[in-house]
UniProtKB/TrEMBL annotation:
Binding site for Zn(2+): C152, C155, C200, C203
Keywords for the protein's UniProt record, in alphabetical order: Metal-binding, Mitochondrion, NAD, Transferase, Zinc
Name of the protein in its database record: NAD-dependent protein deacylase
Catalysed reaction equations from the record: N(6)-glutaryl-L-lysyl-[protein] + NAD(+) + H2O = 2''-O-glutaryl-ADP-D-ribose + nicotinamide + L-lysyl-[protein]; N(6)-succinyl-L-lysyl-[protein] + NAD(+) + H2O = 2''-O-succinyl-ADP-D-ribose + nicotinamide + L-lysyl-[protein]; N(6)-malonyl-L-lysyl-[protein] + NAD(+) + H2O = 2''-O-malonyl-ADP-D-ribose + nicotinamide + L-lysyl-[protein]
Main location as per UniProt: mitochondrion
Free-text cofactor note: Binds 1 zinc ion per subunit.
Domain writeup: In contrast to class I sirtuins, class III sirtuins have only weak deacetylase activity. Difference in substrate specificity is probably due to a larger hydrophobic pocket with 2 residues (Tyr-72 and Arg-75) that bind to malonylated and succinylated substrates and define the specificity.
Cofactor requirement: Zn(2+)
Annotated ranges, domain Deacetylase sirtuin-type: 3-296
GO cellular component: mitochondrion; nucleus
């Protein structure tokens, strides 16, 4: 049986987009790669000589909250210095009803389901907001939480905090590590006492990053399941399709008779069954396919 080869014909894709009624986008780390946010997979999967993915668990935080907080503080600082790229902007524009009406005039719903926690999609929405055009805020679903949410481990009080540094001890640890890297020295582990880590403003207990770790339930999952069930077009943007449940969303759309278009730098899991595959940086291929490359 001959291997299925997905199309890269933009006109064919635009015809499908034009007729789609319920569109979802499933975005992963590759969406933010051009903004300088590490993917923490492959060559970028190490942090201070540690497997970054192994730090994103409740068990890792229970064992060493100092280490996990330093990892997430590093990510916070990277995200604060980053800017949304053209792919973020294109998706933000697609969430503006008047813009979407010209690109996907048959669409009744549009939702961006992002696995990213960096907040760049929210910032892109603010960047494209004008007095006449406002993105639909309900279109963005951050399924793995938000990097800048700080949640109490005791009372669950959560605040959105963009402070830099989040606390003095974490700022000092960041600077010490940067000095080591600049000097070419061997990285050393810094142990921050619990009392110096971020505390809850309500009960003064230890806080944690407000993200969904591996092994934790996803609060938005029931809503996401409904959106996937009704979708007739799924755009898979910058994800390796390895992390469940998001990895199965595109397959479910196809099982229900919908179409799938993948935008990624590499041929990854699920690409060979997609209807369309546009290979390259999302910041280039997505605006080009949507016809926004001249305005993004």
């Amino acid at each position: 049986m001959p291997r299925h080869i997905p199309s890269n014909n933009i006109q064919e894709f635009r015809a499908i987009l034009h007729a789609a009624k319920h569109i979802i986008v499933v975005a992963g780390a590759g969406l933010s790669a051009a903004s300088g946010i590490p993917t923490f997979r492959g060559a970028g999967g190490m942090w201070r000589s540690l497997d970054a993915m192994s730090l994103a668990t409740p068990e890792a935080f229970a064992k060493d909250p100092s280490l996990v907080w330093q990892f997430y503080h590093y990510r916070r600082e990277k995200a604060l210095r980053a800017e949304p790229n053209a792919a973020h902007v294109a998706l933000a524009k697609l969430s503006i009803p008047s813009v979407r009406a010209s690109i996907a005039p048959s669409s009744k719903t549009f939702h961006l389901i992002t696995q990213n926690v960096d907040g760049l999609s929210t910032r892109a929405a603010r960047a494209v907001t004008t007095a006449q055009e406002t993105p639909d805020a309900s279109a963005l679903l951050e399924m793995h939480g938000r990097l800048f949410d700080v949640r109490c481990t005791k009372c669950s009080h959560t605040t959105l905090d963009f402070s830099s540094p989040l606390c003095q001890a974490l700022g000092d640890a960041d600077r010490a590590h940067e000095d080591e890297v600049a000097a070419g020295k061997k990285e050393t582990q810094i142990s921050i006492p619990l009392e110096d880590l971020p505390k809850c403003s309500v009960c003064n207990s230890l806080t944690r990053p407000g993200v969904v770790w591996f092994g934790e339930s996803i609060p938005l999952l029931p809503q996401l399941d409904k959106l996937v069930e009704q979708a007739d077009l799924c755009l898979v943007v910058g994800t390796s399709s390895l992390v469940q449940p998001a990895a199965s969303f595109a397959w479910q759309v196809q099982e229900n008779g919908g179409r799938v278009a993948v935008f990624n730098v590499e041929d990854s899991l699920g690409t060979d069954t997609a209807d369309f595959f546009f290979q390259g940086g999302c910041e280039i291929e997505l605006p080009r396919a949507l016809g926004m490359d001249d305005t993004a």
